[in-house]
Amino acid sequence: MPNLLTIPFKKTFDVPIKQRVRDYISQYHTDVHPDALKWDISRWEALRKDGVGGVVHVDRVKASTVYHAQLVFILTKLPLDIGLDIPYAPVFNSAAPPMTLRNLAYERASVLFNLAALYSQLAAGQDRSTPQGLKQMIAYYQSAAGSLHQLATSAAPKFLSSIPDGISATEFSGAFIESLQSLMLAQAQEGVWQRAVIDSYKNGVIAKLATKVASFYNASLRAITEAEPSVRQLFSAGWLAHLETKQYHFEGVAQYRKSLDDSSAGRYGEEVARLTLANMVVKSGYEIARRNAVAPAVLQDIKSLLDTVQQTLTTAERDNDLIYHQVVPSASTLLAISEVSMVQPMIPGGVADPRTALGNDAVIFGELLGHGARVAIELYQDRRKNWIEEEITDRARLLDDDSTSTLRSLNLPAALEALEKPVGLPPSLLKKAEEVRQEDGPAKIETSINDVQKLAERNLGLLNEALDLLDQEAEEDEVFQEDAPSVRQPSSEANRDLVAKAQRYRGILDGGMQSDTTVRQKWDEWQRFIVQLTWSNEELEGAVPSSTVSLTSGKLGSRSPNSTQAHARQLRVLLESLDDIQRSRNQLVSRATRLAASEDITPRILKAASAIERWVEVHPSMFEDVIDDELSKYDKFREEIEEGEQQQEVLLDSIKERNALFLQSRKEDPSVKEREHALQSLDLAYHKYREISRNLDEGLKFYNDIGDILARLRQDCREWCNYRRDEMNSLLRSMQSMSLGSDAAETPIAASSSERIVPDNHSDNDSLEAPEAHSPESPSSGPSPPSATHASSARAAPSPAPQPAPQPTPHRRHPRTIIDLPPPDSDEWEAAVLPPPPPPSVKKKAPASKRSR
Predict the structure, then answer these.
(1) How does pLDDT run across 379-398, given as a tens digit for each residue?
(2) CB 3.0 to 4.6 Å from 22: which of 34, 291, 376, 663, for a disulfide?
(3) Is residue 582 part of a domain?
(4) How far is CA 433 from CA 421, 430, 442, in A?
(5) Quick one: the chain helix, strand, coil %, rounded to 5?
(6) How far apart are CA 209 and CA 216, in angstroms?
(7) Alpha-carbon span 176 to 346, nearest angstrom
(8) Cα distances (Å, whole numbers) of residue 26 to 17, 84, 554
(9) Are 841 and 716 members of one domain?
(10) Which of 128, 156, 171 is the C-terminal boundary of a domain?
(11) Where is the composition biased (Low complexity) (predicted)?
(12) pLDDT tens digits along 464-475
C-alpha cells in the first residue's frame, strides 16, 4: 500500500557453485571424490535459485527458509571461503555494481535479509480493509521484524567479524538493521491500531495503541539520525520524511483520541488542551510531508487528520467558552499517554531452528567431514610437528652441537689421532698451500710490488712536473716584477692555492710510499714461509718436524710414554661412550619421527565429532582434550632426551679432566712444540700472504686514483701559467703604449678623438699608472685525493719572495694621458717612437716556488 514502506530485495546474480565446490573438495578433502557429492552440489544450486529472493510470492518464504537452513548446516562443513564469489547489489540501488565477497557468511546474511524483505512486501500487499487482511499483514510484519532480529543477533555479527579491514558492509550494521526492524514493528502496530479503529475500541485504548505506533516510528528514525554518516546516506530524504511524518501523525492521533476520551468524561479543559497539542503536532507533520517527497497517500492522511483536529478544536473551544468554562491546562501539565504494544519480532520457526525447516529432507554435505574437525586434525598435526621439533629434534641437535663444540675446544679427537698417526699435515694447511701454488703467490706479489713502485714514481713525476711549471712561471714573474713592481700580484701570492694543493698531494704520496715500505718489509719478513707454501706436499711435509720420534723413543721429558698412552686410552673410551649416547639420541629422534608419520588422529576426531550435535558449528577448540591425549604419547621421548642430556654432561666433565691430564703428559715434549710451531708458522704465512696481496691491491687502486687527480693538477698549473704569461704580455704592451703617450706629450702627434685627460692625484714620486693587476680564479680542485692507508704530508710551504723597493722617478706633476692604441697591424706603429728596452737586471732572485722545493 502506498502509505506503508517496504524493504527492497538485495539483488544477486548467478554463481558457479559446482566448479568452486569441486575444486575445494579436490584440494582439501582428498579422501572424497567430487562425484560422490554430485547430489549435494546440485541441491545447493537448486535451492539458491529460489531462495535468494527477488520474487514476491508466499511460496518463496519456504524456499528462502529452507535455503537458509541448508546454509547454516553447510557452514558447519565448509569454511567461509571456498573460492566462490558471491555478489549482492545495494538494497536501495539495485543498478549499482554489486559487492562481491568470497564469504559464505555473506550469503547467509543476505538470504536472511531478503527473507525479511519478502515478508515486508507480502505484508504490504495484504487487503487492510478486511480483518483477515489486517491480521495477515500484522503477522507478516512481525515475521519481517523477527527475521531482521535473527540477522542482527546471529548472521550479521558472524559475517562482520569475518571480513577483512577496509571492506564496508553498512547494510549489515546494527543501526541499519535496527531502523528497519523498528519500521516493521511500527507498521505492524499501525495494523493493530487500524483494527482497533475498525472494531470501535475505546478512544483511550486507541490512543495508547497510536502512541506506541509513534514510538516505533521514532525509534526507526532515531536509529538512522544517530548512526554514522555511512549509514545515514543509505536512506533517501523521502524515506526519512515518511518516518517523521508518520511519527507526528500518530502522536496527533493519540492526542486526538485522548481528547475524545476526556470529552466523554467531562474533562473539557483537558480536551481543549490535547486538541491544541494535537493540532500543533499534526501541523508540523503536515509541513514536513508537504515540503518533502512523501507518498501522496501519506500526505492525504495527515491533511485529513489535520482538518478533523482543527474542526474538533474549534467546536471544543466554543463549547468550553460558552457552556463549561473549564480551565485549559498547559500542554506540559497533561499526563503522558501510556504506550501499549501489541506486536514483537516473531522469528519464523525455520529460521530460529533450521532443523525444523528441513524436516525429513537430507542435509547438504551431511557425510562430509566438518571444516572444524578437519581444522582440528590439521591443528593436531601442526602441534605434533612443532612439539617433536622443539622438544626432541631441536634439543637433540643442541646437545650434539654442545658436544661437538666442547670436543672442538679440546682439540679432540684430533689430538689423539695426531698421537696415533703424527705423520702428515692437516688438510686445512694442505688446502691453503694448494691455493698459494695455484696463484703462483711469490711471483704474483713481486709483480704487484714492482707495479706499485712504478705507479708511485709516475705519480711523483706528475707532481714534480706541476711544480716545475709553477717554478718556471715564478722565475718569469720575478723578472717582470723587477721591471714593473706592484703592477700585478706576485706569483708567490697568486699561486698559493695551487702550491698548497700540491703540498697536500705530496704529503699523501709520502704516506703512500711509507705504506709501500711497510708492505715490502712485511714481504721480506714472511717471504721464506710463503715460498714454502708453494712446495709440493711431500717437500712441505718433510719440512715440518714430526712428533713420532719422541713417542717411539720414549723421550717425553719427565713423563713416560706409558703415562701418555694411558691417558689416551682413557680418552678414547670416554669418546666412544659419548658416541654411543649420540647414536642412541639419533635413534630416538628417528623413532619419534616414524611414529608421527605412521599415526592418524582422524578416527578419534571423527568419533568425537559424531558425538557433537549435528547442527552445531564445530570449532577446533572442541577437540582440545583429544589433541592433548594424543600428544601425551610423545612424552616418553622427551624423558629419554632429558636422561641422555644428564649422561652427556657427566661424560663431558670426565673428558675435560682426562684431556687436561693428557695434555700435561705431553707438555714437555720438544718435538711436539717444534711441530706445532712449524704448523703455526705455515698457517700464519698463508694469512700474511692474503694480507700482503690485499695491501698491494689497495696500493694499486690508490695510485691509480691519485694519478688521475695529479694529472688534473698538472693541467690546472699549465693553464694557470699560460694565463699569467698572457696577462704579463698584455701589461707589457700597455706599459709600452703609456711610454709612447709620454713622448707624444712633448712631441705631439695626431691624437685620437677618443683621447681623455685624467687628473693625477698621486704625489710626484708616483710612477705611471698601470692596469690593475688581478689574480685568476683558482682552478677547480677536482675530487679529493684518496686517503686509504696512505697518510698525508706536504712539500715545504713556499716562502714569499721579498718585494723589491720601487725606484721613484722624479717627474713633474701633470695630467696623465690615456691613449687608445692602434691595432697591432696598423701602419701607425711605423711612425711611433718606441722607448728603449729596459736595462738588464743586476741581480736575479730565485722563484718562490723553487725555493720551496
Answers:
(1) 888 888 898 999 999 999 99
(2) 34
(3) yes
(4) 21, 5, 12
(5) 70, 0, 30
(6) 11
(7) 19
(8) 14, 15, 77
(9) yes
(10) 128
(11) 776-798
(12) 999 999 999 999
